[in-house]
Design a protein that fits this description.
The protein is α+β, with helices and mostly antiparallel strands and 149 residues long. Helix content is 35%, strand content 11%. The chain is built from 5 helices and 2 strands. The termini are far apart.
């Protein structure tokens, strides 16, 4: 098979092209099946499959602007997605009552690095910081690059 021209293995170069994002395919092949099977083993009636569109909706809304339009002021939401619950519902059809639970499951499994709640100018924002999961074990666990855990 020949090498594809115009595609780079460098994530930043792909983002610089615009409207292009990468994800680790082992998330779909190993991580989500493990999470879903663990929940189904404990409670077969649990509806956890909607964790997949929830994660990818968050991933698709990550703010990649490091600075504000002035080019000097750091962007407080850089690297985070901060969609409203209504926006997540529009994108996924997932009831807003489930968003907190799904986000917690993603956080516990390493698919989100952090979740921050802030009040800015009288409005409540939830910042989701997704992990791009560069290292995934054969049994579907996220491996922390710094600690190896």
């Amino acid at each position: 098979m020949g090498k594809q021209k115009g595609l780079s293995a460098d994530k930043q170069a792909l983002q610089d092209v615009g409207n292009y994002e990468t994800y680790n395919r082992d998330i779909m092949r190993k991580v989500f099946p493990r999470i879903i099977s663990e929940f189904k083993a404990k409670s077969p009636r649990t509806s956890v499959g909607d964790i997949i569109p929830f994660y990818f909706a968050i991933l698709s809304l990550v703010d990649s602007r490091e600075y504000l339009t002035d080019g000097k002021t750091p962007n407080r939401s850089y690297g985070a997605a901060f969609p409203s619950q209504d926006r997540l519902y529009e994108m996924t059809g997932i009831n807003r009552k489930r968003h907190t639970w799904l986000a917690t499951v993603l956080l516990q499994n390493g698919l989100l690095r952090d979740i921050r709640r802030e009040f800015v100018s009288g409005r409540h924002y939830i910042y989701y910081y997704p992990s791009f999961c560069p290292y995934i074990s054969e049994d579907g666990f996220i491996i922390d690059a710094e600690t190896g855990e």
